Amino acid sequence: MNEEKKMSLTVKVLLGMFLGIIVGLIINLTGLLSNSFVDTYIVNGLFHVVGKMFVNALKMLVVPLVFFSLICGVCGIGDVRMLGRVGGKSFALYMMTTAIAIATAIIIAVALGIGKGMNVETAASFTGKESPPLTQVLIDIIPKNPIHSMANGDMLPLIFFSILLGISMLLVGRKAKPFVEGAEIANEIMMKMVTIVMSVAPYAVFALIAKAIATLGIDLLISLTGYVGVLVGALMIHLFVTLMIILKVFSGLSPAIFLKKIRNVQVFAFSTASSNATIPVTMRTVTERFGVNNSVASFTVPFGATINMDGTAIMQGVATVFIANVYNVELGISGYLTVILMSVLASVGTAGVPGVGLIMLSMVFTQVGLPVEGIGLVLGVDRLMDMIRTAVNVSGDATVSSIVAKSEGKMDVSIFNDPAAGTLDSDDTIGKLDIEVEKEMAEVIESTHKRDR
Ligand code: ASP
Predict the structure, then answer these.
(1) Of 92, 206, 353, 449, which has the highest C-beta tally within 10 A?
(2) Which residues of 370-400 are buried (b: 16+ CB within 10 A; e: fewer)?
(3) Residue to probe by mutation, ligand 1, list 309, 316, 392, most atoms within 8 Å of CB
(4) pTM of full prediction above 0.70
(5) Which residues line ligand 1 (CB under 6 A)?
(6) Could you identify the atom of ligand 1 that is nearest to the CA of residue 275?
(7) How far apart are CA 127 and CA 10, in angstroms?
(8) pLDDT value of position 421
(9) Which pLDDT band, with edges at 50, 70 and 90, does 2 fall under?
């Protein structure tokens, strides 16, 4: 397969994104949304249905993928102590990057004095929701019923159960071998399913983004340019400077290659605004494009999607300074330190789903005595900001996964450095069912039926 062809799906996904932005802008700016045909059949019809179907397909993959890959990860790790080290290192790095992210955001926002002298009247109403307290987060790590956690897609209890199951299989030893092999096969099958779902991404990404942009309040975006500008600036600094310095210093890997290969994951995160729904894509990219061994990625990726939210923390830092300035509240050093602590802790207990950052923000506001209804000020632009910050969140997950894997000797650097490794188009088995294997499968099924009869 030639190089040009190999790149084509990635290029198509990016094209889908840009076309989505353009079509969305056209619908938005020309007021086409007020046309009931465009509104009902195109934006809230076709775009909505295609986009939602795709997000559902991604979510469908998450639980079985995390379950089987973690079992394989634990069984393949060879040394159970390494599991503890991977857990400790990734937790420390996730917390550290989130704390740096929010501190940077606060410093930039304070230095620029955003929101000073703004009129409070523009606020839309917002009533806060509760984030789970830390004690409950800790208790909920242990599932009362693993099937219930799986059905709900609760990541931390699912991770806990899968790891414990893997360890138990190791302890049972030889007798558990068929089970381990079964999990390995199931993992491979799930990975193939990820590739199949990703192959329709260009169209779905287009639909998701076109709808988001078409329904976006552009006028709000303009009236909040100060907030949006500082927030996007801080997000970009974190992504391109902070995370890349951390990657280089802790792993020696090339930031340029990292940024090139992470693009697909970022587009998925951007269009779905959900780190959780992006897990299958992050996992595939980190293992097959970066060369991170599954024993590390199977843990660090879902763990990161749940506890690591650098982009979300940045939003909270900028929004806090912005709203404090609008309402003329002096938070002071201790107020800002509380904000940093609360945001880092809140990110542990909340899953990476759309809009969760606002819930965390209301908790932070209550803690430091800022008016929760002030969040109404930034509500109108939050969907777009959510999309951008989720792309930063998943980049953080991939950065930490790479650092941890490299430090544990669980990374194939030659795969990382190979531009063609693991591209979607390099998987040429999609769409080509093996006729011989198909026949064999049919024979096996037929003979099983005969035996049962
Ligand atoms: N949507 C973000 C995520 O899934 C969380 C948030 O910032 O609301 O990572």
Answers:
(1) 206
(2) bbbbbbbbbbbbbbbbbbbbbbbbbbbbbbb
(3) 309
(4) yes
(5) 273-275, 309, 312, 352-357, 386, 389-390, 393
(6) 4
(7) 40
(8) 85
(9) very low
Ligand 1 center to residue 360 CA distance, Å?
10
Is residue 221 within 8 A of residue 228, CB to CB? The reply is yes
Question: Residue 317 carries which side chain, given as an amino acid letter?
Answer: G
Q: Angle between the 382-407 and 201-214 helix axes, to the nearest 10 degrees?
A: 140
Instruction: Quick: pLDDT tens for 196-247.
Output: 998 999 999 999 999 999 988 788 788 888 999 999 999 999 999 999 999 9
Q: Could you please report the per-residue DSSP string of 336-380?
A: HHHHHHHHHHHHHHS-S-TTHHHHHHHHHHHHHT--GGGGHHHHT
pLDDT of amino acid 127: 60
Closest CA to 345 of 83, 146, 149, 134: 134
Compute the distance from residue 354 Cα to the ligand 1 centre, in Å.
Answer: 5
- Ligand 1, atom 1, lies closest to the CA of 354
pLDDT at 211: 93
Please count the other Cβ atoms lying within 10 Å of the Cβ belonging to residue 250. 17
237: tokens are 């600094």
Task: Give the ligand 1 atom nearest the CA of 359.
Answer: 8
- What the block records as the tokens of 131 is 């984030």
Report d(CA 225, CA 41) in Å as an integer: 32
Measured in residues, the chain has a length of: 453
d(CA 105, CA 331) in angstroms, rounded, equals 15
Q: Across the chain, what does the average pLDDT equal?
A: 89
Q: Does residue 167 register a pLDDT over 60?
A: yes
**Which atom of ligand 1 lies at the shortest distance from residue 358's CA?**
8
Question: How far, in Å, from the CA of 4 to the mean position of ligand 1?
Answer: 34
Residue scoring higher pLDDT (125 or 21):
21
pLDDT of residue 128: 58
273-282 burial string, b = 16+ CB within 10 Å, else e? bbbbbbbbbb
In degrees and rounded to multiples of 5, residue 292 shows phi and psi of -75, 130
